[in-house]
Amino acid sequence: MTDFRDRTGDREPALPRRGAARTAKLASLPLGIAGRAVGGWGKRLTGQSADQVSATLSAKAAEQLFEVLGTLKGGAMKFGQALSVFEAAVPDDMAKPYREALTKLQSAAPPMPARQTHRVLAEQLGRSWSGRFAHFDDEPAASASIGQVHRATWHDGREVAVKVQYPGADAALRSDLRQLQRFSRLFQAFVPGTDVKPLLSELAERMDEELDYLSEADNQRAFAKAFEGDPAFLIPRVVASAPKVVVTEWVTGTPLARIISDGDQETRNLAGRLLAEFHYSSPARVHLLHSDPHPGNFMLTEDGRLCVIDFGGVAKLPHGIPRHLGEMTRLALDGHSGELMQLLRGNGFVREGSELSSDEVLRYLAPFTEPLATPTFHFTRRWMQRQAGRVGDTRGTDFHVGRSLNLPPEYLMIHRVTAGSTGILCQLDAEIPARGIVERWQPGFAT
Fold first, then answer.
1. If residue 349 lies in a helix (H) or strand (E), which one and from where to where?
2. In this structure, which of 203, 243, 312, 321 has its CB flanked by the most CB atoms within 10 Å?
3. Are residues 68 and 2 in the same domain?
4. Residue 426: phi, psi to the nearest 5?
5. Strand-pair category, 377-378 with 431-432
6. Spatial CA neighbour of 366 closest among 390, 394, 400
7. Among positive and negative, which fits the CA dihedral 411, 412, 418, 422?
8. Are 312 and 220 found together in one domain?
9. Could you tell me if 287 and 198 lie in one domain?
10. CB-based contacts of 36: which residues, under 8 Å, 6+ apart?
11. What is the rounded average pLDDT for all residues in the chain?
């Protein structure tokens, strides 16, 4: 039996809760970046080249981004994790420091003291909580935005993962997201072509779901039941749950982040294919969409299955993916601009009073369908950078066409998750049969 006494001394709590302190930390991001920009001009005057100064500023900004968003956890880290999947869109000349910083945010964060962990477990599982475990490791196996995971052995001998929510996570989440929304434009430089403000709004709307571990456990049970026995996927079963603690089966595998960094091409392709199939098939199989697509939530098991974890963010789709999306994708792929425009207007995708022509809209949307034009498609960072540059260039036609289009509220989550999953495919540099997957699972696409 593990010794459950606190071994951490009087370390600071894992989640800083004082509003003023958190606000000051977040406010340091724009101030620090502005200060470094001024310093950069001074270095230019002393003879350093523009490229040298730019590279130094990018590295320092990325370092500060990770330090602030990572150590604060809460909404700050949740936002950083959401940004991380769009890392592939960052131009190569400034990508390396941001890539490293954003990737760290997928799983790295300082742990909370064991004393705090024990207190939460006692509140949630009862004062005799330790009797439920044959062994409990006080050192967390992973830390994330609003909770950390411990490895343990359940009383019946099963290896389990114990996810414990940080005390004060609710207040920190709300405070951070309010503060981040105040200077959302600052983050636009980190992820060109991605509209950060709606992303923050969506995260704010999903706060209650993220904080409710009972709801997360119900979501995971639904996915586990739907994918039970599937040779390609593994969803860990839920063992026990409470509002701020959830216990699931432990799974060992290779995280997608490691496959992204040093996996061979065959493994990258396998991971990408399974990720795409999970994304497109879930609405049909479970009537739910896993809505937190970052590499920290996926791993490959030794027998080649995709293990999926963290079901706090889930979109309910009782009728699956709307058929109109498949129909629009097919029309854009086939170049039918008139029918496409009619369908877009009829379903609220074009802003009132817009004078867009059907050909302009087709030119804007068609490049996004390139992965479906051939039996297989190679998702690369360069392809994603082209798309992000095209729609994010304020001088270009596509930018203004995009501003005239509208994404109805019921499609926001689907769009964001699809974009995030595509970002991971580009990070993986995966070549996959995307067209066949979409034809099988996306209503309205197959002819």
1. none
2. 312
3. yes
4. -70, -35
5. antiparallel
6. 390
7. positive
8. no
9. no
10. 57, 60, 61
11. 79
Residue 222 has pLDDT above 50, yes or no: yes
Q: Residue 185 — very low, low, confident or very high, per pLDDT cuts 50/70/90?
A: low
| Residue recorded with tokens 């207040």 | 171
Same domain? 245 vs 259: no
| Run of H or E including 111 | none
Q: Are residues 272 and 190 in the same domain?
A: no
Place of tokens 């070549």: 431
Same domain as 244, residue 260: no
Catalytic option among 176, 292, 398, 429: 292
- Dihedral Cα 353, 354, 357, 361, nearest 10 deg: -140
Please report, for the chain, how many H helices and E strands are present, in that order: 18, 14
Please report, as a single letter, which amino acid is at residue 144. Answer: A
Look-up of token digits 């690369």:
380
432 in Cβ contact with 274 (< 8 Å): no
d(CA 34, CA 49): 19
**Closest by alpha carbon to 29, among 176, 159, 201?**
176
Domain span at residue 239 reads 1-250
pLDDT in tens, 64-94: 555 555 455 544 555 555 555 556 666 665 5
Coil/strand/helix, residue 303: coil
pLDDT, mean of residues 195-215: 72
Alpha carbons 223 and 413: distance in angstroms, whole number: 18
- SS3 category, 378: strand
Is 195 considered catalytic here? no
Strands 306-308 and 233-234: parallel
- Here the tokens at position 445 are 């696409």
Both tokens of 255, joined, read 């995280």
Q: Which residue has the higher pLDDT, 391 or 111?
A: 391
**Co-location of 320 and 225 in the same domain:** no
Q: Which of 204, 232, 250 is the last residue of a domain?
A: 250
Number of Cβ within a 10 Å radius of residue 327: 18
Q: Say what the pTM is.
A: 0.78
Of 229, 250, 271, the one marking the end of a domain is 250
Q: Which two tokens stand for residue 383?
A: 């392809």
Question: 240 with 277, same domain?
Answer: no
Domain count, the chain: 2
